[in-house]
Design brief:
The chain is an alpha+beta fold. The protein is built from twelve helices and 13 strands. The chain folds into four domains: about 100 residues, no CATH class; about 90 residues, 2-Layer Sandwich (Beta-Lactamase), CATH 3.30.450.20; about 70 residues, Helix Hairpins (Orthogonal Bundle); about 150 residues, Histidine kinase-like ATPase, C-terminal domain (Heat Shock Protein 90, 2-Layer Sandwich). It is about 50% helix and about 20% strand. It binds adenosine-5'-diphosphate (ADP).
Length: about 450
């Protein structure tokens, strides 16, 4: 700074000095002329430098910083250095950005950056394929103009950041995408899409295979079972061993038939194309029927009780709910020793309708509880088989609960008993307006 003023003031002081000297020697007029002419020359030099600067500023990226003279030399040199540093900085940023873009292009998932109003800010090549976007052309466009499927639009509007959405039949290629929204930097969002088409195809093949095998086995099993029963009933069958063997064969074929039926039920529930057919389900009536069936199944071995604390109905599928609740009741009977108590309850907890079956049976150790709904998971294999279990009952219950957005709860203590409950979301509750008696 000091250097600048030193250099800036040398010329005016020198000019004043020489002008004063000339005044003393030659008089005021020549001194004034001398002073004026040099001042004018100086002004022209400054204006020329200013013009050069103005000219350069019109397009600083394309032109080189001019070479200044005098005081301007320092200014232009600094500008030049600033521009160089700026260019280097920009080159570094561009390289980092390119690096990031290359990395995100290599991601096995599509990524779209959305602003607060769901406009596209950036996307990677895989997202272009998934949503039919063009990374350059569609920047700034609303994502829902590009991907218009109603489920997707609804998912985006709901801002459900926890749950992924499965979109089937996307675009002409019929892709199956798993989509997830992740919030970042305030109200912005990352839309992550994964192509699950291959996985879905294999899943469908697996499901179809199980369903087809079960279906094919049904008829031969029914025929064998029929013959075994007929043979058993034949009065001419005197051989005890043959009668015993036929009895065992009958039991096993019936067990196989139950397995096949449960597998078919599961495949139906598993099928994504099989949407839930909703109707008003009169729960008190359904529970009364289940209670009667339970009593028949128990054969008066247990004290069965029905507690209808609510008369509300639910919006759901009666057949599926009957199958799920039936499994819970049958389990309670099968895993409760003779003389035990079983309570079927229908109640409301915080606006949520809840069905529960409480038993005083053998109970379940805590380490088994998280795995009970897995297919063929049994705590005690022999007890399950002896009582005619297939190992698929709770898997069916879990599927039915999921299809109704209901929560399956299991509370149990080994040796004391268990309570299995299904809590429906409040929006499935329908008032029945009917008198009831427990
Ligand atoms: P299963 O046909 O073997 O009963 P489920 O899927 O219905 O198959 O049940 C899985 C396992 O959970 C059963 O094998 C049993 O060990 C346990 N279980 C289910 N319900 C009860 C219950 N009420 N009390 C004790 N254990 C139970």
């Amino acid at each position: 700074m000091f250097d600048f003023w030193r250099r800036a003031l040398v010329f005016p002081f020198a000019l004043i000095f020489f002008a004063l000297l000339l005044w003393a020697v030659a008089g005021a007029l020549p001194a004034a002329l001398f002073f004026g002419i040099f001042l004018l020359v100086r002004l022209v030099i400054h204006l020329r430098q200013l013009a050069l600067l103005e000219d350069w500023l019109a397009d600083p990226d394309a032109r080189a910083v001019p070479d200044g003279a005098g005081l301007w030399e320092g200014v232009f040199a600094r500008l030049n250095r600033m521009m160089r540093l700026n260019r280097e900085e920009r080159a570094r940023h561009n390289a980092a950005l390119q690096h990031m873009e290359q990395a995100t292009s290599a991601l096995p998932e599509g990524v779209v950056m959305l602003d607060e109003a769901d406009h596209i800010e950036w996307c990677n090549p895989l997202a272009e394929q998934h949503f039919g976007l063009d990374c350059v052309r569609d920047i700034g466009q609303q994502i829902t103009y590009m991907a218009r499927q109603p489920e997707f639009v609804q998912y985006l509007a709901m801002r459900s950041f926890g749950e992924p959405l499965v979109l089937r039949g996307v675009r002409q290629d019929g892709l199956t995408l798993s989509i997830k929204l992740i919030p970042y930097s305030g109200n912005k969002k990352l839309l992550i899409s994964r192509d699950n088409t291959r996985f879905e195809r294999i899943e469908t093949m697996r499901r179809d295979f199980v369903a087809n095998v079960s279906h094919e086995l049904r008829t031969p099993l029914a025929v064998v079972n029929g013959f075994v029963e007929t043979l058993c009933d034949m009065p001419s069958l005197e051989n005890d061993m043959a009668r015993h063997a036929l009895g065992l064969m009958g039991e096993q074929t019936q067990r196989m038939a139950r397995l096949v039926n449960d597998l078919l039920t599961l495949s139906k529930l598993d099928n994504a194309l099989n949407a839930l057919r909703e109707e008003t389900v009169d729960m008190p009536a359904l529970l009364r029927a289940l209670y009667q069936e339970g009593q028949a199944l128990s054969g008066e071995q247990h004290a069965l009780r029905l507690e209808l604390e609510s008369d509300c109905a639910v919006l759901g599928n009666a057949e599926e709910l009957r199958s799920a609740f039936g499994n819970l009741v049958s389990n309670a009977i099968r895993y409760t020793p003779q003389g035990g108590e079983i309570v079927l309850r229908w109640q409301e907890q915080n606006d949520q309708p809840v069905f529960s079956v409480q038993d005083s049976g053998i109970g379940i150790a805590p380490q088994h509880i998280p795995r009970l709904t897995e297919r063929f998971y049994r705590v005690d294999h022999s007890r399950s088989r002896e009582t005619g279990g297939t190992g698929l009952g709770l898997a069916i219950v879990k599927h039915v609960a999921n299809r109704h957005q209901a929560r399956l709860g299991i509370v149990s203590e080994e040796g004391k008993g268990s309570t299995f409950s299904i809590a429906f979301p409040a929006r499935r509750r329908l008032p029945l307006g009917e008198e009831f008696q427990a």
